[in-house]
Write a structure and sequence with these properties.
Blueprint (H helix, E strand, L loop, with lengths): L2 H12 L8 H63 L5 H24 L14 H6 L10 H12 L12 H43 L2 H6 L4 H30 L5 H12 L15 H50 L4 H23 L11 H19 L23
Subcellular location: Membrane
Pfam families: Ion_trans_2
Protein name: Potassium channel domain-containing protein
């Protein structure tokens, strides 16, 4: 074998195989794929559900609208015939005519309007047979493709506006099965993206904090309680901004909506209240509306969880403070029926303890290591000192029992 060939063979055998993708990059790709895959699965499931609902409900909707149209034309014809041929001479005749002819026509108009039958599809009185044949066919707007997909999304998100609903037995059975599978899937997607939003908000907050001037950083609380409270407040403000942006978009899309109506709809939707009194009707933006709702639900669930944690933290703090403090107040209340000088001395000790803790907070101690339990420890120490002083004092002569002259009731809340 020639020398050059041997050299190339040795170099080729000494080369190590290169890794195509780093482990960290591969992990990120898998994470992104899992998040996107969940969302795509939900969207496909929602689309399939909308198409199935449309196929099940559309024939019944056409039949219903045609029946309402025929009934409306019949009642209108009877009304016109009675007006031309009847003679009303008194109120009794008028009441009979109203009950027999006018009321059925008004009921037919009301039923047609409630079911979404457009009055443009009703031929005019002067229309000829040729005009009737040329008239546009009935369009079931309630079960168009976009409306059906939007309806499926309201089932999955448990909003349920109530303006559109399945009327056939097959549609209702499918609705039950669709919800049983789809609602857990939707909650999984909302929880997954809610976690992403929480991590994103936390990351953005840390970056903004590092770039703030020192004067502004000194105003931001550094203890854990202050950070949690500030985070909850920032999350609520972020939700309000998101709702305001949605309200502005809906105000542009829905010509008869004001900004407040758009904000009201967004709030009722994101909290899954879903009254159904205000619902978008423009079919062009139904898909975007569905995406906006899904993102908003993830954001809302995250913010509600942050606020709930803040409430829980405040409640635990309240319980930690209320135990020893309430016991001290009870002892003070019992002593109020005896020697008032002892009561005044103990009360001054508690007041001095509270004032010293307040001075520590104002002097900047909270920026370092002032813990949440310092208040409780200070009051416990004061209470123990009071008990020790009572043991050293000589016991007074027994007096006849007196009713307490003072009751102390304190309501606390740090929420």
């Amino acid at each position: 074998m020639p020398y050059d060939d041997k050299k190339q063979l040795n170099e080729g055998s000494s080369r190590k195989p290169k890794k195509c993708i780093e482990p960290e990059t591969l992990k990120k790709i898998k994470s992104i794929a899992s998040h996107v895959g969940l969302l795509v699965t939900l969207m496909i499931y929602c689309l399939i559900g909308g198409l199935v609902f449309r196929n099940l409900e559309l024939p019944a909707e056409f039949e219903k609208l045609n029946g309402l149209k025929s009934e409306l034309l019949k009642q209108r014809q009877e009304l016109l015939s009675s007006v031309n041929g009847s003679v009303i001479t008194n109120l009794t005749d008028l009441a009979k005519w109203e009950e027999a002819t006018l009321r059925p026509y008004e009921q037919a108009v009301q039923d047609a309007a409630r079911s979404g039958l457009s009055m443009e599809l009703i031929p005019k009185i002067t229309a000829t047979e040729e005009d009737i044949l040329k008239a546009e066919p009935i369009i079931a707007e309630r079960w168009s493709i976009l409306q059906a997909v939007f309806f499926a999304s309201t089932i999955l998100t448990t909003i349920g506006y109530g303006n559109v609903f399945p009327s056939t037995t097959s549609g209702r059975v499918f609705c039950i099965m669709f919800a049983l599978v789809g609602i857990p899937l939707t909650l999984t997607v909302i929880a997954d993206y809610g976690k992403l939003f929480a991590e994103g908000v936390s990351s953005v907050a840390k970056r903004m904090r590092s770039k703030l001037p020192k004067k502004l950083i000194s105003c931001v609380p550094s203890n854990q309680t202050g950070k949690k409270s500030l985070g909850a407040l920032a999350a609520v403000l972020l939700l309000l901004i998101y709702l305001a942006c949605g309200a502005a978009l809906f105000m542009l899309w829905e010509t008869n909506w004001s900004f407040f109506e758009g904000f009201y709809f967004c709030f009722v939707t994101m909290t899954t209240i879903g009254f159904g009194d205000v619902v978008p009707t423009n079919p062009k933006y139904m898909l975007f509306c569905t995406g906006y709702i899904l993102v908003g639900l993830a954001l809302t669930s995250t913010i509600i969880e942050l606020v709930r944690r803040q409430y829980a933290h405040s409640w635990k703090k309240l319980q930690a403070l209320s135990g020893p403090f309430a016991e001290t107040l009870r002892k003070l209340g019992e002593q109020a029926g005896g020697d008032m000088s002892i009561f005044q001395t103990d009360l001054k000790r508690l007041m001095s303890t509270a004032m010293s803790m307040s001075r520590r907070k104002k002097s900047g101690v909270e920026k370092s290591d002032l813990k949440d339990t310092d208040w409780a420890e200070a009051f416990v120490a004061a209470y123990q000192a009071m008990e020790e002083s009572k043991k050293e004092e000589p016991k007074p002569e027994p007096e006849p029992p007196r009713k307490p002259i003072m009751q102390i009731i304190i309501y606390e809340s740090s929420v």
